[in-house]
Amino acid sequence: MTVTCEECGSETVVRCVLGLPTVETAEAVERDPNLELGGCVITPATWDSRCRDCGHTVGLERGKRSAADGG
Ligand SMILES: [Zn+2]
Prior knowledge:
The chain is of the alpha+beta class. It has one helix and four strands; from the N terminus they run βαβββ. About 15% of the residues lie in helices and about 25% in strands.
Protein backbone atom coordinates (compact mmCIF):
# COMPACT_ATOMS: atom_id res chain seq x y z
CA MET A 1 0.00 0.00 0.00
CA THR A 2 1.40 3.37 -0.97
CA VAL A 3 0.89 6.21 1.45
CA THR A 4 1.30 9.78 0.31
CA CYS A 5 1.95 12.80 2.45
CA GLU A 6 -1.15 14.96 2.77
CA GLU A 7 1.09 18.02 3.06
CA CYS A 8 3.45 17.73 0.10
CA GLY A 9 2.20 14.66 -1.74
CA SER A 10 5.50 12.84 -1.34
CA GLU A 11 5.42 9.06 -1.42
CA THR A 12 8.35 8.73 0.93
CA VAL A 13 6.14 8.27 3.94
CA VAL A 14 7.37 6.09 6.76
CA ARG A 15 4.81 3.90 8.42
CA CYS A 16 5.17 3.31 12.12
CA VAL A 17 4.79 -0.27 13.30
CA LEU A 18 3.27 -0.24 16.75
CA GLY A 19 3.22 -2.94 19.32
CA LEU A 20 5.72 -5.62 20.15
CA PRO A 21 7.45 -6.55 16.92
CA THR A 22 7.33 -10.18 15.91
CA VAL A 23 10.17 -11.82 14.02
CA GLU A 24 8.21 -11.30 10.83
CA THR A 25 7.67 -7.63 11.61
CA ALA A 26 11.33 -7.09 12.44
CA GLU A 27 12.35 -8.71 9.15
CA ALA A 28 9.83 -6.64 7.21
CA VAL A 29 11.13 -3.45 8.80
CA GLU A 30 14.68 -4.39 7.89
CA ARG A 31 13.69 -4.95 4.27
CA ASP A 32 11.36 -1.99 3.86
CA PRO A 33 12.88 1.47 4.30
CA ASN A 34 9.37 2.88 4.63
CA LEU A 35 8.68 0.99 7.83
CA GLU A 36 9.90 1.95 11.25
CA LEU A 37 9.40 0.31 14.61
CA GLY A 38 7.41 2.49 16.94
CA GLY A 39 7.70 0.37 20.03
CA CYS A 40 4.96 -0.91 22.28
CA VAL A 41 4.38 2.25 24.27
CA ILE A 42 1.80 4.54 22.74
CA THR A 43 1.99 8.16 23.86
CA PRO A 44 0.09 11.26 22.71
CA ALA A 45 3.12 12.01 20.55
CA THR A 46 3.07 8.64 18.85
CA TRP A 47 2.75 9.03 15.12
CA ASP A 48 1.25 6.66 12.63
CA SER A 49 3.05 7.92 9.56
CA ARG A 50 5.77 10.44 8.87
CA CYS A 51 6.90 12.15 5.67
CA ARG A 52 10.62 11.91 4.96
CA ASP A 53 10.51 15.02 2.79
CA CYS A 54 8.72 17.61 4.90
CA GLY A 55 8.58 15.84 8.24
CA HIS A 56 4.79 16.04 8.45
CA THR A 57 3.43 13.46 10.86
CA VAL A 58 -0.01 11.96 11.12
CA GLY A 59 -0.97 10.99 14.62
CA LEU A 60 -3.02 8.05 15.73
CA GLU A 61 -5.84 10.30 16.82
CA ARG A 62 -6.35 11.96 13.46
CA GLY A 63 -9.88 13.14 13.05
CA LYS A 64 -10.74 12.53 16.65
CA ARG A 65 -11.05 15.25 19.20
CA SER A 66 -11.25 14.56 22.89
CA ALA A 67 -13.24 16.53 25.40
CA ALA A 68 -9.94 17.89 26.69
CA ASP A 69 -9.84 20.19 23.70
CA GLY A 70 -12.81 22.08 25.05
CA GLY A 71 -14.91 21.45 21.99
ZN1 LIG B 1 5.45 15.73 3.11
